[in-house]
Design brief:
Radius of gyration: 27 Å
Distance between the termini: 101 Å
Strand content: 15-25%
Largest sheet: 5 strands, antiparallel
Helix content: 25-40%
Structural class: alpha+beta
Number of strands: 7
Order of helices and strands: HEEEEEHEEH
């Protein structure tokens, strides 16, 4: 029987290990520096774009308002027209399927929800992202129930219920939770007046 020849064992030298590791380290360092530089250059522009988007959303959720001024504690905005407060604008968050969502809710001085806008959402496209559609958000535009809204999976909703989106009950509940937080803040303000 013949014996198979074995290949000689190769030993690695420090240079063969350190050279690729050092190249990878330098590459990562350069990429990190470029990303940090890009962030530094665009940070102010991104903040300004976000401010403008929130300003436009305030106009959307509180139609008829001419101006907005922050509350004394900075937690909401007063919607004003003709020198009088015509409503309030709240920005609230809730946990959803894809993470935190930010919702802006407008409520008239009389307690009717005048609009709901989603500022941030990262849920499933085609399911949870449908919360951005007008037909879903328009369900909230009615008198704000003191105990908040509930989500209805099946059937015809009444004035305190919101129809859940098919396949996106978690997102429907998250938007409703955020709107309910705005409703609670509204009633706390009215109670303190």
């Amino acid at each position: 029987m013949k014996q198979e020849a074995q290949a000689p064992k190769k030993t690695l030298h420090a240079k063969e290990i350190l050279q690729p590791a050092l190249a990878l380290f330098v590459f990562c360092l350069i990429v990190t520096a470029l990303l940090a530089g890009t962030n530094l250059l665009t940070r102010d522009q991104i903040a300004e774009q976000n401010r403008l988007a929130e300003e436009a959303s305030r106009l959307t959720v509180s139609p008829g308002a001419e101006s907005f001024s922050p509350s004394a504690d900075g937690t909401y905005y007063l919607a004003e027209a003709g020198g009088e407060t015509v409503g309030y604008v709240f920005t609230t968050t809730a946990s959803s399927y894809g993470g935190q969502i930010r919702v802006m809710t407008g409520i008239s001085a009389e307690g009717t929800i005048t609009g709901v806008s989603l500022l941030e959402i990262s849920d499933t496209p085609g399911l949870g992202m449908n919360a951005q559609r007008e037909e879903f958000r328009a369900q909230y535009e009615k008198p704000a129930p003191p105990d908040g809204f509930t989500v209805l999976k099946n059937g015809t909703p009444d004035n305190t219920q919101i129809s859940a989106m098919t396949g996106a009950t978690i997102t429907s509940q998250a938007v409703t939770d955020a709107v309910n937080e705005a409703v609670a803040q509204y009633y706390a303000i009215k109670e303190a007046e």
